[in-house]
Amino acid sequence: MPFLNKLQLWAEDRPDDTAVAVGGKRLTWAQLRDDATLRLGETPATTVLAEANSLQFVVSFAAAVAGVRRCAVLDPLWPAPLIEEVSRRIGPGGKPAGPDGARQPGADDLLDGPPDSDFLVGLTSGTTSVPKAFTRSRRSWQLSFDASVEFFGLQQDDVTLAPGPLAASLNLYALSECLYAGSAFHTLEHFDVGDAHAAITHDGITRLVLTPTVLRLLSERGLAGGVDASGIRSIICAGSKLDARTLEAARRWAPNAAIFEYYGASELSFVSGTCLAAGEPLDAGGTGIGGPFPGVELSIRDDTGAEVPAGAHGNICVRSGMVSNGYLWGDDGYALRSFGDWFTVGDQGYLADGVLHILGRRSDMILSAGRNVYPHEVELALASVPGVSAAVAAGMPDELRGQRVVAGILPAFGAVTATQIRTALDGLLAREKRPLQYYLLAELPVTDRGKVSRRVFLDWITDNDPRARVLG
User: Fold this and answer.
1) 154/100 Cα distance (integer angstroms)
2) 127 has a pLDDT exceeding 50
3) Is 402 exposed, middle or buried (0-12, 13-18, 19+ CB in 10 A)?
4) For the stretch 410-435, what's the b/e string if a residue is b when 16 or more beta carbons lie within 10 angstroms of its beta carbon?
5) What is the pLDDT of the chain when averaged over all its residues?
6) Helix crossing, 169-181 with 138-152: angle to 10°?
7) Residues 181 and 320 placed together within one structural domain of the fold
8) Do both 373 and 345 map to the same domain?
9) Which CATH number goes with the domain that contains 405?
10) SS3 274
């Protein structure tokens, strides 16, 4: 099941408690159940949602996964032709039907469908303009819920704020997880630092779910503005490794919060995670991201599927019931591979003393003077240097080395020099992995979808773009 059977339970037991709040507008458990039930008659077998955050979105999503229905959630900021193409590929709606094509019994009931049935079409960016699409079963999400509720310690009296768009998998999962656990979920109509701080101050928020970039923004501005975050008990971060500066700011701003970070992939669900309890000493800058998530087995394997020696690098492989069912389209044979019942998305890493260390995608690896250098590892070290707000690393052609490591630096404040950065990297990064040239960035190089891009960074250098100037 995903969460509808549980929603019925909470609506009976606590009908007048807040289930969901979006920008100050609220639905109780009973209102959410009743509104979603009314929507069922007009909800087809397959629904494509491409909407901004709203209570209407939540109601539509709940109805769209009832029974044997399935739902695809698209970013409403995508170009209209892309949304139309993805919708066309997913297929027509029609009436909810069983395998024989007959109207499915209970199609008008707000209940979970069979555990092995698909209910969600996920989309992940690929090398083409049309994202890859994969499916998830109801059983896989129930297992994911059970694991994450246990790992993050989610309680019914928690009040979660996930300030990002519900079209993003991090926030959509947080919403669904809270509906499953019977815990109130809050979000914003549009992300705004002031609105997020207001929710934390006035809505009794005890739990944050966000990306490291947003955590840093809320923490640093919260400290500057005197926003009280002492009531926050847990912070859950995903998307990239937490750097030292973000951790320090978050610890100062929310001193009573346990800070969780985890590694996962859309196709794999949760893989590994770690928790920094309130008051524990900070230990940032490394590549480690905890041990296996509950219900997950980890293995590092080569391209033949053979397990590599202890401590050696290879494909991060998982074995769990949370893995997706595979692709509807876009499968190039490398995005999600299996070695028997072990699955990988091609991320590289190694295990040391039970801790998983993430190195990044093999396609991003830099081969410099016969040594493998992963940009992710370089970027983590650079982001922990005082005066550096963010960094991007990449490899450029080099006649002597094959490739040389270069890095773009977005300063945190004032001026920063290459000499200061080189000095600060002593003890943080092996000498052979350090950049040979630094560039001062006017802004982060991003794609049209807002993702930091090493390719765009290299194009700036090649084109002598003023947004990337040599840093002396």
Assistant:
1) 40
2) no
3) middle
4) bebeeebebeebeebbeebbeeebbb
5) 90
6) 80
7) yes
8) no
9) 3.30.300.30
10) strand
Q: What is the pLDDT of residues 428-469, one digit of tens each?
A: 888 989 999 999 999 989 876 567 889 999 999 999 999 999
What residues pair up with 391 in beta bridges, in sequence order? 409
Count how many Cα atoms sit within 13 Å of the Cα of residue 155 in the half-sphere of its side chain: 7
Residue keyed to tokens 């739990």: 207
Q: Is 5 left (phi over 0), alpha (psi -120 to 50) or beta?
A: alpha
Using the predicted structure, report yes or no on whether residue 371 has a pLDDT greater than 90: no
Sheet holding 258-265, edge to edge: 25-28, 18-22, 184-187, 159-161, 207-210, 234-237, 258-265, 269-276, 291-292
Q: Would you say residue 399 lies in a domain? A: yes
- Is residue 464 assigned to a domain? yes
Overall domain count for the chain? 2
Distance between CA 385 and CA 389 in Å, rounded?
9
320-338 burial string, b = 16+ CB within 10 Å, else e?
A: bebbbeebbebeeeebbbe
- The answer as to whether 360 is a domain residue is no
Work out the end-to-end distance of the chain between its first and last CA atoms, rounded to an integer number of angstroms: 57
Residue 194, H or E segment: helix 193-202
How far is 430 from 427, CA to CA, in rounded Å? 7
CA dihedral defined by 359, 362, 368, 373, rounded to 10 degrees? Answer: 0
The parent domain of residue 224 ranges over 4-355
Closest listed residue to residue 438, CA positions, set 372, 399, 401, 388: 388
Q: How confident is the model at residue 105 (pLDDT cuts 50, 70, 90)?
A: very low
Instruction: For the chain, count helices (H), then strands (E).
Output: 12, 26
- Encoded amino acid at 445, one letter: P
Q: Are 334 and 391 in a shared domain? A: no
Question: Could you say which of 324, 355, 386 is where a domain stops?
Answer: 355
Q: Which of 330, 355, 380 is the last residue of a domain?
A: 355
